[in-house]
Amino acid sequence: MFDLFKNEYKRYQKPALVMMIVQLAIWGFIYTQKPILANHQLQSGLMNLFMILSGLLFGVLQMALHRRKNNWAYLLHRPISPAKIHLALISAAAVLMLIAVVLPFLMVLMILDLFTSDPVELRHYLYLLHMIGLTFSCYLIGTYTVLSPNKGALLTFGLVFLMVNGSHSSALLTLMTDLVITVITFYLSKKSFKINLSSHFKQKTTIFIAALVLQPALAFVIFLSQSIYYHLPMMLLDKHPDQYTQQQNLGYYSVLWHMENHQRVKMILEGSDYPDVAQLIEQVKLASSDAINGRLTLAAVRGELFYKDRSYALDDEANNKQWIFSHNKMLFEGRDSNSGDLVGFLGKSGFFNADISPTDEDRFEVIPKLTSNQYVQSSNTLYGLDFDQQLMEVKHQLPEGETYQSAVLFNRDTAVIILFSDKALYFFDPDEFSEENIYTKATNRVVHPITLGNDTQIHYSKLIDGYLVEYRRSQVFGYEKPLVKLIYAKHNGQNNLIGEMSFIDYRPLPKLVTDSNFWISPIIDSYVFSFIQGLYNPKDGRYVTLDNIGEQGYGKETYLIAILLAMLSAITTFFIASRLPMNKSTRVFWVLLNLIFSIPGLLCFLLMNPWRDYLFYRYQKPLPS
Q: Checking phi first, is residue 233 left (phi over 0); if not, alpha (psi -120 to 50) or beta?
């Protein structure tokens, strides 16, 4: 086994070393352009792409070379078990990927830690574990794809999106996700490594895991099939609802897409008892306006992996200093830009020298947000910075129980500054806000009239005596109808709900199309995966908790379609399985499984079994179980 490990390692040793050297050169170039540890979306994206492609392509290449007829026979006919052969090969691959992918970044971290002033912390080293998990999982998916007769094995790649696109910030949750996916892909790769590569899975546990990990990708593929059976044909016939006129969209949320601000206001206020509607509409016609993303966001978490950082440092060019935030100290460390020497700290109590030990009162409770190198924002307090005077003053503070949801929002077109919390919107005069070392009171505070969610949109128009704020919530899974509310927030402090409007539906599409996410896979896709997503993002704003998951109120026809498709999947599975060389218990297992998985489960069954070899031979009897 060890000899096989050494031979496999030596086979790819030189390419791995070349990749390591190239990576080090790239990191050296990046260091000349920007701080390596300062998160940048492009840098994170390229790192993820490199890890994914490195693992996936190496797994495909390695096993494709081994599975050639003579090579595979030579490989497997050794005096050790296939499990040990598999372990030797993937162990060699793991070492090679550590050298080619992970070791260069480890060397970069150690150099930064030992020879520079950058605050390298445990969370930066923990990122190496994420690199290992992502690269090795992609490698195992590549080996599983090549070795398995399952024609949908590559769709297991959908698991990778949980690793790179998770909205959570917790390092523990990120690494636990990586570990679970690595274990699952290792298990599938190991079970696919066998003498007869054309034999399909027989064990029920393996079948269940292989089918389960295909569910999200297959459900998504079926969802996209709407384009073929509905959207494209209807567009070619010029009968698609997105091509409807404004008049045809009346009563639907989509009518808002075709309207100017004053037209929306007129429609919402139609039948309202609000006085001077005509005058208000004329004001809106001339007013400047903008939109705000109204979704609730997860706050940054202490100790999060560095590629999720949103608040790296403040540049004090006037004093030639840089203030880098330390998760360990929960303070900004002030460093001389030339020498890197520690010159002070910046905490809740302001600037203080390095010879003064910080106290708990000085430390931030949460990871602060930074705006324009001028504002530091905790969960409920906004501080303004004056680097010349080395002062930090409270610029704005939220009432108890409120939390900021965004950094400071500047809008030059409307000449307004906005702070957005989980309870209200705060509008500020930009001239007053820009005055240093002065607490600024909001000119208007608008309490959110609706519960915020991922689909919330906020539009506002700046009028002479205040702001007209429009809150929208679109359709959520088909059980919460679209709604629009209009608030008139005057400068004298009055906030009036002057109009609201509900809609029949999101847009005039058939229920078969609008509720497809439910009937495709009512249990797995609409309940299980939605519930899991809610665990990762508790501020999602959807019905994904155990308490309210039963509140999804689809129409009777949607439930009927879901039940019929689940039964059809189970019956079709039974019909095909009865002609396959499959024992009775496995056949019953697949039928029950697809009664739960529905259409994606049926596709899994077809991808994971050699049904073509038996189904079309009408008079051929199944082989003995």
A: alpha
